[in-house]
Specification:
The protein is about 30% helix and about 15% strand. By secondary structure, the protein is an alpha+beta fold. The longest helix is centred in the N-terminal third of the chain and has 18 residues, at about 5-20.
Length: about 260
């Protein structure tokens, strides 16, 4: 028979084990505290001066018209800004910002629009078109109501297009080829056989037109109004092969072969 003290010890250990295995009751969670919303119009806390400069800006800070945004305007990022110096926005339109904008623009160099007037770059004075790209290449050398145009034979005669392509006669403000004489005097008559005037330009009409181009640059074949190089034999027999080693036909001309 077990002693009484041993029996009481066993009962105490069993009771303790049952108490440990019983799940404890969950403590009620503390309700989440919310700060009361600020009333409308109440001042907000000042921004921390140590906050990151890359933090997202407020909605009111964005926009090209807001000077605080530090962003470029729509006009400053438009193609017209780089091409025509129309970088300032006025009344919903992109316009040159100053006289310097006109003088520094491509339209000034290309077509003489160098003077700032009423928010636009325009041609100024009788000599405003002289020295421009359109005057040199196309004969548009006269200021006609703010635009450079070809209005006289003198305008066209000094142009590259007259010397190279026979475009020596003004016709509706541009230079065109209107006479066989101008075509025959052009460099393309000798190089491409374009010696006859048709529809405002010089063209090659017969195989006879290709005799000289064939001898000079190997352009022996009449095709679509011009003489072109189509065979290596034609290039090899030409002056350009002997002088410049351009003895292979490629894309209508004689070129130097790849080494």
């Amino acid at each position: 028979m077990r002693p009484r003290s041993s029996t009481l010890l066993i009962l105490a250990l069993l009771t303790q084990s049952c108490e440990e295995d019983r799940p404890s009751a969950a403590k009620p969670s503390e309700p989440e505290r919310h700060s009361p919303a600020s009333p409308a119009g109440a001042p907000t806390a000042p921004r921390d001066p140590g906050a990151s400069v890359n933090a997202a800006p407020d909605a009111g800070d964005a926009g090209p018209s807001n000077p605080r945004s530090g962003t470029l305007s729509l006009c400053e990022t438009s193609p017209d800004c780089s091409a025509e110096q129309k970088c300032a926005g006025i009344l919903g339109q992109c316009v040159p910002a100053s006289p310097d904008s006109c003088r520094d623009s491509y339209p000034c160099r290309f077509e003489g629009r160098c003077e700032y007037k009423d928010g636009r770059c325009v041609v100024s004075g009788d000599n405003g078109c002289k020295g421009t790209i359109v005057c040199k290449t196309s004969g548009e050398c006269t200021n006609d109501h703010g635009q450079c145009r070809a209005v006289s034979r003198a305008d066209c005669a000094s142009s590259d297009n007259c010397k190279e392509r026979g475009f020596c006669t003004p016709d509706v403000n541009v230079c065109k080829a209107t006479s066989n004489r101008d075509c025959k005097a052009s460099s393309n008559c000798e190089l491409r056989g374009e010696c006859s005037a048709r529809d405002g330009k010089c063209v090659a009409l017969t195989e006879a037109d290709c005799v000289k181009p064939c001898r000079q640059v190997g352009a022996c074949t009449l095709q679509k109004g011009a003489c072109i190089a189509t065979t290596n034999a034609g290039c090899a027999a030409s002056f350009i092969c002997k002088r410049h080693m351009a003895c292979k036909a490629w894309d209508g001309i004689c070129v130097q072969p790849l080494r």
